[in-house]
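Hi team, as promised in this morning's meeting, here are the two structures we talked about. I've kept the exact order from the run log so nobody has to guess. The first one is mostly here for context; it's the second one we should focus on when we meet again. Sequence first, then the predicted structure tokens.
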Amino acid sequence: MIRCDKAAIRRWLYGMYLPDPLTVIKLADAFGVSADYLFGFTDNKAFTRYEQKSTFYERYKNLKEAHGDTDYTVSKNCAIRDSAISKWKTIKDFPSTDSLLKLVNYFHCSMDYLLGRGNS
């Protein structure tokens, strides 16, 4: 069950701010769709959840290495503070939804992969 008030949903719909990553996961699960569908990256509603055993940072690191980047180049190219990237490694937590969207566009990967819900 997703617990959020109408005002929060209204702010999401009007683009005032984005739901946090855990809320994105809950919304996608509740509707049985991919996070990519929620954000308009795909029109395909069909989604099979694949639980990743790796941490967000491990998935990010794999993408970064496959792309031939360093944390510094990702930081500069995506306009994400390098201190935020350092926290992903040490805290082992998701970045903000805004940062996730930047990474999806930069690495041409799925939001679900970054959230640990999909395998590509």
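And here is the second protein, the one for discussion:
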Amino acid sequence: MADPFSSLRPWRIFLRVADCGSVSRASLELDADAAYVSRTVAALERDLGVRLLDRAVRPIVPTPEGRAVI
């Protein structure tokens, strides 16, 4: 049986990155590879057609669109 919440996984990853302010820290907390975390958020952004995180600053912060989602 498929996990009924698997479609929420990208959202959970996005929220953890936004909360941590760092892909690497979020990946540690999620016990996941940092590249996987980064790719998952990028795919979510691609699917939505908007940037959710501003990666140009440290710590990483949500964009206005990302804040709206949160």
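Starting points for discussion:
The radius of gyration is 12 Å.
The first strand starts at residue 53 and ends at 54.
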